[in-house]
Fold each of these.
Amino acid sequence: MSGFTENALIRKLQELNSSQQSIQTLSLWLIHHRKHHAAIVKTWYKELLKAKDSKQVTFMYLANDVIQNSKKKGPEYGKEFGAVLIDALKHMAKTGINAKTKHALHRILNIWEERGVYEPERIQEFKVAVDPNDTEVTNAKRKAVDIETKDNVKKSRQEEKTRQKEHKERRKSDSKLESKAGSDGHNDNHSSSPKTPPGDPPEPEELIKALLELESSASSDEAVRERIASLPPEVSEVQLLSKLEDKESALSLSAVVNSAVELLAEYNLRLSEELEKRRKVATMLRDFEQAQRELAKKAEATLEEYNIKLQKIYEVKAEVKSHIENLPDVSRLPDVTGGLAPLPSAGDLFSV
């Protein structure tokens, strides 16, 4: 992964676009260089002030990705961004943001509030910065927002389950198509995915890091899987409830069930996050493989070009050697000076 410089960061921020891959790639680079968090956030803020209205939201998406994904490694980014976010949001509100942008910002803030990224009072300050005309938020409105947020979270979870189900069905369908198309030719297996266009290839260090992170993923957490496997059968088999004889045993089973629900919900969330990471790594591998194939083609073309040049040089060398061999041997020529009088000197010529 390339080293950090302020000019490199400015260039990457200028090239940033609203695609998920662009945001996540730059986010990984920033998290990797988190020891420069102060300079990074300062540059991020300066470039946001220069950015057009449409790109300012992309800067906020980048900040959101960095803040949330760097929490496990340290609180540096959360604190550093927290110091400039109010001014950044005020600047965005002052330049005139439309309803769509305002909705996107409130969605980020609601996620932060739900996940405890910042204190509720701090979140409220951010919301006021986004919408300065709404400085007096009533308790009723706050409650409505909380209810709406919970509903959105519930809806998002439901949508995530639906997406996972659709993804499994698509994978089955894709597997059948791939096995059917496998006999049509080897090149078809290396074609780009129709779902996502190829992007910039990752650096080898970045790809290795992403692969190493998968080693500690949820699916390899044997301790949690053993806990799930050791749950009593009454937790998952409804017909066994008929064996409950008194209220005390029912309450005891209820506590076990609640604990199992929390355990499974947390594990399912981790598995969903792992699935997203694996999708991302798959995309990185595809882009990296495609880039290597292109580099290999270029290397082959260059090799062929220089082989042709080398062959020409060999031909010239052989021609020069042949020409040298056909030249007469000067050492074997007769001595043309033998028996002749020596030439007069300059003094002999001018003497009287």
Note: Confidence is low (pLDDT under 50) at residues 135-142, 183-195.
Amino acid sequence: MEAGHHKTKLVRDRRRRHTWHCKPSLWGLPFFQCLAFLDSTSLNVNHLLALSSKYMAVAAMSDDPIREWILSEGKATQITRISSIGGGCINRASRYDTDAGSFFVKTNRSIGPSMFEGEALGLGAMYETQTIRVPRPFKVGPLPTGGSYIIMEFIEFGASRADQSVLGRKLAEMHKARKSDKGFGFDVDNTIGSTPQINTWTSDWVKFYAEHRLGYQLKLALDQYGDSTIYQKGERLVKNLAPLFENVVIEPCLLHGDLWSGNITSDKNGEPVILDPACYYGHSEAEFGMSWCASFGGSFYDAYFEVMPEQPGFEKRRDVYLLYHYLNHYNLFGPGYRSSAMSIIDDYLRMLKV
């Protein structure tokens, strides 16, 4: 009897030990090892399987921060569909349909969150003006496998582009509504395409544009292509920009910064929508720097200048704002854009006689 009693007690002790070791490990791999001891524990099998399912769900959520945000802060309980909606040459874009509405998500598998953080700050600043419609940004973060994502409001687009006069008026209203008391620049550096865009706060617009816009792109062309000709001529222009801005009142307005046709659309009610910004505070005329790729017509400019009156010398300055974007395209996409940039530089050097 003593021997038998001792043996029984030992088995019970072992059962207690197995049970004790299993319970604290239910959320880690040791939990699965514990399944082998189910016949010698007091835990219910269904309870363990339920905990296992919960564990797997939590693990899946942490591996997918986009899904995690949508099902928590996004107020959704179910994602019903994920569909690819293309994207540009830099990012991938997807639509997430849920029982709480739809979300627009962009991902980049090679660039960290800083690019999307800059975009989110710009979208947020434009959204706060309550002038022209932009998608409201919700969340930016890193992807577990590298890269980053941004979640924002999904806007159902209309069948046609925005009305030119409405677009011009609302854009001018945004420029008028949001000014900076810090000078020209932005709170963070961001990107124009995938090119870094330096936004160090500067009190003088001509200095800012010369150094952080034209000067930066010219140096990039020199470093990337060894193009000393465009660099040297461009630097001569950069040092002599001041006469183009005589008698001009320049205020630091909130700019979209990359306003071309691919970033302009309309919602299902026909209201203009602008997307994918490269925001900073600058001279309002700099917003027209991508007009060669935006098809702005007379009705656009007429409506714009009704709200933001045209400044003296506007026509004379237009091309200096085109130059920044031609240089950026040269640096991003190759020599096909060099001749346009070079032509603008040569024309200004002759005009300014420098």
Note: The first helix runs from residue 2 to 22.
